[in-house]
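Issue 218. Parser rejects a valid record. Input:
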Amino acid sequence: MKKLIFILLFVIAFTSCKNEAKIESTEIETISKEDITTSIYPESITKVFEAHGGIDNWNKMKTLSFTMEKQNGKEVTTTNLKSRAELIDTPTYTMGFDGENLWVSEKEGNEYKGNAKFYKGLMMYFYAMPFIVGDDGIIYEDAEPLVFEGKTYPGVLISYDAGVGASPDDQYVVYIMPKQGKWNG
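Output the parser choked on:
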């Protein structure tokens, strides 16, 4: 009988010391995400940027480098996308722009016959399309749609504020593939 009382006391003591799991309930508040557009670009240009990977991704990039085959050999252009400093290296000359000064260094007695001020940034401008039309100082207007082979392509006229770029009177039209939203370059 002593054993029975001892076992009974042991069971009572054991169960009274047992930690009970506390159940806490947490109320979850559902917050709906609002789609707020804060773009400084027209909707049509924003869609073009998105179709090509997004302007935010472009803005994270630091350097653009490309090579073009020319009659006298390869022309390699490297541009700092933040400062627009640029180096163009060819077999006959090297052209550089440090953000303030433009220079040309001729190689092996070759004479540079181009317009360095005009050529600086020219090819980079076209390689960086469509994102280059996201630069400051650009004016966007609707352009007359282009109809080609029975298809209509909406257009955006790109022009520049006074004092922007080497050729502020230039104008370009970005035509857009309606289904894909891509620049039709």
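Fixed in the parser; the record now loads. Residues 43-175 form one domain.
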